[in-house]
Amino acid sequence: MKEISFFRVSKIVACLLSFTPLIGCMTVPHPFEKQAGNKGGVLSNPPPARLIVPVPTESLLNDKESAVLAHDIAKAMLDQTVPAVVGKAQKGEWLLVTKVENQGDMVVPKLSIISPDGKVQATRDAMPVSTKDWASGNEAIYAQVAQQAAPIVNEVLTGLQARQMVSDPHSLKNRPAQIYFEGVKGAPGDGNTVIARQFVVSLNDKLNAIQQDKSKADYSVGCNVSVTNGAAGTRGNPVQHVEVVWRIVDKKGKEAGKVTQINDVPAHSLDVYWGDTGSAVGEEAAGGIKRVIDNYSGRNNRPLAENGGMTKAPLVTPPGLQN
Description:
The chain has about 325 residues and is of the alpha/beta class. It has two domains: about 5-40 and about 175-295, Double Stranded RNA Binding Domain, CATH 3.30.160; about 50-165, Rossmann fold. It has five helices and twelve strands. It has a six-stranded mixed β-sheet with strand order 1-12-11-10-8-9. Strands 2, 3, 4, 5, 6 and 7 form a six-stranded mixed β-sheet that branches. A hairpin with a 2-residue loop joins strand 4 and strand 5 (about 105-115). Helix 1 crosses helix 3 and helix 4 packs across helix 5. It is elongated. The protein starts with a strand and ends in a 26-residue tail after the last helix.
């Protein structure tokens, strides 16, 4: 679950603009104007329900060291939000198989992703290590190899998911996301109506559509507004604290993300009319929710080539082992 703050700079967003509402003068940020990173693109739903990491039998290590390597790889994959466990290779499971090859005075760990039908979907080279260092039994080396390889494997899984989505006519790569809007609650005055109206207008596009039947929706979106008395404010002018929380839930009831909008306004300035303030809240929330759905569904991810491709990692000498 990822939370995007309306007023605070987040890992994903950092862009602030301002406008003048009908009542008073306040600064309203537009944090969804552009992205400042790709953290939100981390794989949320990889192809495997779980990824089995067998203890390698061709690791050029003894049994104990091979087991350490397997556990390091599984832990590194978990850090990438991929459900990986160490276990025996079995049919019908996604596997991440490691094989280590000698290449002159270096060894190169190769990680292959194998689908439940037994086909190798892709193979990636991990960090090359000198033969001497690999045979030293230094477990820090195995951990570093695993940590370097995990994002590469995660990228492959993301590409596999995207490739499956391309071939599925019902996936969100081939149709708009259907979104059931539960409305806005808790705002004083006409806030619920103004925010909701602008949200619906701003959300509808080629990739997202409002769905009236919740049972047919891919996601449900609900919004709660709270207005509480705040500090006295500058020059003794009282303020109120406004917090708007949008919650996005997938069809299975799992939270896909949140968009939170926070601001302080002149006390009671929103008791009756929200005007441009309400429109800004609805418009900016729609942009944030679109990004949540993009990231959660993976619909913008690049498909993996059918041949799986090949990449090589740069030569790295493990820290502390330089001669």
